Amino acid sequence: MTTTTISDVNSLKRALIAVxxxxxxxxxxxxxxxxxxxxGGPADLLLVVRTADELIRAWRLARQHRxxxxxxxxxxxxxxxDRGIRGFVIVNRAERLxxxxxxxxxxxxxxxxxxxxxxxxxxxxxxxxxxxGIPGTVGAAVAVNAGTRTRWMSHVLERVRVIDAHxxxxxxxxxxxxxxxRESRLKHTGDLVITAWLRGRxxxxxxxxxxxxxxxxxxxxQPAGPSAGSVFKNPPGDFAGRLIEQCGLKGxxxxxxxxxxxxxxFIVNTDRASAADIKSLIDRAKAAVAERFGIxxxxxxxxxxxxx
Length: 308
Ligand SMILES: Cc1cc2nc3c(=O)[nH]c(=O)nc-3n(C[C@H](O)[C@H](O)[C@H](O)COP(=O)(O)OP(=O)(O)OC[C@H]3O[C@@H](n4cnc5c(N)ncnc54)[C@H](O)[C@@H]3O)c2cc1C
Prior knowledge:
This protein has 308 residues and is an alpha+beta fold. The protein has eight helices and 16 strands. It folds into three domains: 9-92, Uridine Diphospho-n-acetylenolpyruvylglucosamine Reductase, domain 2, CATH 3.30.43.10; 97-220, Uridine Diphospho-n-acetylenolpyruvylglucosamine Reductase, domain 3; 223-302, UDP-N-acetylenolpyruvoylglucosamine reductase, C-terminal domain (Uridine Diphospho-n-acetylenolpyruvylglucosamine Reductase, domain 1). The longest helix is centred in the C-terminal third of the chain and has 19 residues, at 275-293. It starts with 8 loop residues before the first helix and ends with a strand. Flavin-adenine dinucleotide is lined by residues 36, 70-78, 92, 109, 134-137, 139-141, 143-144, 146-148, 186, 192-193, 222, 227-229, 302. Residues 36, 70-78, 92, 109, 134-137, 139-141, 143-144, 146-148, 186, 192-193, 222, 227-229, 302 line the site of flavin-adenine dinucleotide.
């Protein structure tokens, strides 16, 4: 069998339009509106998918046409460059959610974590309360092992359906994923999460809701405004925010971006910042902490798009 592979973005564009129509396939679409920091240049092509089947189909088409493909959830953990992202961006809004007996939850990867937590309360499933305050989607949360100080995605994941670069689907168990603090193997293989099965346990709705309200209250101290949450991972035994604060960088600005006065591990877009402004602050904080404490801070956020 011979396969024809066409490698230009226009052929993918035509293929996407043939399936989804001109209305849904966006060309040169500014990405700032798809990420929490509200920065970033355009994507060559962009499609918002609404089901797991659409997600798989779009992913396979991109591969068939040999175009780079980037999947975004809520863009709450990424810094997209001012030059944007070449190739194809899929915005994942596949959000089917099903509750099975004994606290087992099946969630499409585009499911909003807060919606999942609230629905779990309605279904009297406990153990997923910690997701209430984390902005993002299930798929990204698995890939980056999102969580709070004490509870991470890896603690509740039962299994996950992924698709690899060749379009092959398979199921993986947590033991396949090399989970660690804000880490998983998926970050490195680039496999895409399609669906995740999470393990809760039967609980009482009023208790679950009380716990979620507490967790949300604890977050009230977090800086307001467009950010990506914590920019850096906490180094072992310390806090990135404390180290940056000790370097006197709270309130430090570049362009429209500022290291938050409330929490020095947050960078806030206060006034039409560019991605370059934010990147300058990240570099400044890293250099200052390395110089003063000899500690190399590692980014929790991920860089997307073209960077020099
Ligand atoms: C105010 C604020 C508070 C935050 N608090 C926390 C917190 O307490 N704990 C915490 O862990 N994080 C926190 N974050 C960071 C963020 O919420 C999490 O990292 C979340 O998991 C990001 O989800 P997302 O859908 O927005 O991912 P995106 O930013 O869209 O994507 C993140 C990465 O995952 C990849 N990805 C997206 N979808 C998939 C998929 N289906 N399969 C595989 N890879 C995928 C993307 O390509 C990208 O590399 C916070 C962020 C903000 C803005």
